Amino acid sequence: MRRPPLRRDADRSGAARYDTRCKVIPVIPGEAVIGGESTQRRTGATGGGPAPGAGAPAASRAARRAAGAAGVAVAGLTAALWAGVGLDAAGAVAAACYALGLWLLLGAGLRRAGGRFGPADAVTLVRAVLVGGVAALVADGLVADGLAGGPEHPGDPARWVLAALAAVALALDALDGRVARRTRTVSPLGARFDMEVDAVLLLVLSADAAAGPVGAWVLAIGAMRYMFGGAGRVLPWLRAPLPPSTARKAVAGAQGVVLVALAAGVPVVAAPWAAPAAAGAALALLCWSFGRDVVWLWRHRAVRQKSGTGSGPNA
Predict the structure, then answer these.
(1) Across the strands, what pairs with 201?
(2) Would the pLDDT of 51 be above 90?
(3) Structural domain spans, the chain
(4) What pTM was estimated for this model as a whole?
(5) DSSP of 155-205, one letter per residue?
(6) Of 60, 33, 37, nearest to 240 (Cα)?
(7) What is the distance between the alpha carbons of residues 235 and 233, in angstroms, rounded to a whole number?
């Protein structure tokens, strides 16, 4: 009997790959966009999942357990911050809203994905919990700043805890994709989960920086991903997948590094002009990255329309 062809990966042109049963599996090349920035798309490396409807009750239970664990973990971290750095009611409310949203959205995503939750998703879940702590501290600080009539002092212990949580969440961003590839547990849900955690972290850190000496304009760093996504609702060609780019990844990492440094107050201590200069440079790089991607998508939209491939979602 003739042996079936072995599995082969898709090339950058978007060619299909074949599994051992000779079935064609479409593959979208490139990376998934995070508002102009990107992480490596965790799709296409695993075999086919269960048939639709198969094991639905078990999948639903697994989804509820994973989403519930996320909510409990955020609550536990909030309690630790309450006892450790004196988190106030505003931070607790922000953490509760974040935990509820994480529970609802992650649970819905897991149910659609069949309830599968791999090791890389567990790493991303840890990052999501840390981001919940960052959101609680930022909300608490914003309310405190409004009541006190000015920003917190850079030497406040809560500032260092905020910066430490954000730094660990950023560092783990390089781990979940590697774990997914090594354990062959890549999935579209993992890619989307990772992207949204990144986007929320940048948005929260941008809000924190806007309350400091930098000014409200720094909110553009966190809001740009959502503006890009909103534009994609109106212009479908913006939702097409982008090719991999080392420069795009470097720019994305630079945003996080600068915002964490601003949260810790490092540029403020160094010199009064350093914080606006660092944030301005980060925003300029982000605008360049977005602009380059938009130009690439515009130039290639006619090719996709002619080939009939259209524009697929990128996140």
Answers:
(1) none
(2) no
(3) 35-307
(4) 0.75
(5) T-HHHHHHHHHHHHHHHHHHHHHHHHHHHT---HHHHHHHHHHHHHHHHHH
(6) 33
(7) 6
